[in-house]
Structure to design on (259 residues):
């Protein structure tokens, strides 16, 4: 519990500094770049707080989370640098709150995401905090699930980036590659990865069953809050052909497209 509080305060300090930077840049979008690296920071901080060496479970989680953080953080950094202006989601919030947005953004964006990082990472932190545990089939299943999710998310992001680079696709709907099978394969990959992390935690000790709160919250946000629901609403308004894409393509889990 002491380690959880320590990582919480660390993330809150970093989020406050990031908020100050956003005021200087007049761009809240930078918080997205920190999202994945924030989890890696939590895991490594929890590891350093251990009094004894961590086991193989912790080492595997460290490696997977760090790989994901570098990949997604770099991807979002490149995307942020290539875009002109603040992300439309935050720009809309800035218009809504007006002159007081500078203050509300601290709580509505930075503190909220900091809390989510700490809560969602509970399976990681609790596994790192435990001592070495014997390996079992569940451990390898968890690695396979997490790795599949990580790779799926990376491939989906690369395909979408390549699609957007073509000027002719400016107003078109991405329905190629993995995107033919799912309207949000990157989000599905992300959710799958987090459930893989949870399985690894469970393989270290069945007493960690309650840490399912982490991937459950992540999946809920990806589906109902800041992910699928929000994008479906905005894309459908901007691109009429998206309605046809909806009719023939699975919303989340990759499935063969309908004829």
């Amino acid at each position: 519990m002491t380690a959880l509080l320590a990582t919480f305060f660390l993330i809150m300090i970093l989020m406050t500094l990031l908020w100050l930077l956003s005021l200087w840049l007049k761009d809240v979008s930078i918080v997205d770049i920190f999202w994945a690296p924030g989890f890696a920071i939590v895991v490594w901080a929890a590891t350093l707080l251990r009094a004894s060496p961590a086991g193989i479970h912790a080492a595997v989680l460290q490696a997977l989370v760090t790989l994901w953080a570098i990949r997604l953080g770099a991807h979002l950094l490149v995307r942020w640098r290539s875009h002109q202006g603040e992300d439309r989601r935050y720009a809309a919030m800035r218009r809504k709150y007006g002159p007081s947005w500078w203050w509300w953004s601290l709580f509505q964006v930075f503190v909220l995401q900091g809390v989510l990082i700490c809560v969602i990472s509970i399976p990681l932190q609790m596994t790192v905090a435990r001592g070495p545990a014997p390996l079992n089939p569940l451990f390898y299943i968890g690695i396979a699930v997490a790795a599949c999710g990580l790779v799926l998310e990376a491939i989906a992001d690369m395909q979408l980036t390549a699609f957007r680079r073509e000027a002719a696709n400016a107003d078109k709907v991405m329905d190629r590659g993995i995107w033919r099978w799912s309207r949000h394969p990157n989000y599905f990959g992300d959710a799958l990865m987090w459930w893989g992390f949870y399985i690894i935690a469970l393989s270290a000790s069945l007493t960690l069953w309650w840490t399912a709160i982490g991937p459950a919250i992540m999946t809920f946000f990806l589906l109902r809050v800041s992910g699928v629901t929000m994008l479906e609403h905005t894309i459908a308004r901007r691109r009429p052909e998206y309605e046809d894409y909806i009719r023939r393509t699975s919303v989340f889990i990759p499935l063969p497209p309908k004829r």
Observations:
- The two ends are 53 Å apart (CA to CA).
- The chain is about 75% helix and 0% strand.
- Residues 137-165 form the longest helix (29 residues).
